[in-house]
Amino acid sequence: MPCACATKGERVACANKPGWSVDILYFLVPLSIVVMGIMIWAVVWTVRSGQYDDLEGPAHRILMDDDDPRIPRPQGASTEPGDTPPEKQAKH
Fold first, then answer.
1. Higher pLDDT among residues 41 and 76, named by residue
2. Alpha carbon distance 32, 25 (integer Å)
3. What is the pTM of this model?
4. What's the CA gap between 30 and 39, in Å, rounded?
5. Which range marks the domain in which residue 25 is found?
């Protein structure tokens, strides 16, 4: 049955038809609450997992030169990127 405000067979959403424009809110309001809950959970998870602990360390670390003799190296660490320490080489 066409709406009372439609003329000549037009299909129009009428404001005076009860419940027509409000029905979508029954879907959108719970959907937005669920999406908001997921976003809050994601922020809480990132804070608890330590994602924001050290924001400047990695940015400065990438600028440091690995060949700098002032950087302490673990005992037996190689100076060349592809070298393997003698104790870790496979014996044939």
1. 41
2. 10
3. 0.44
4. 14
5. 18-50
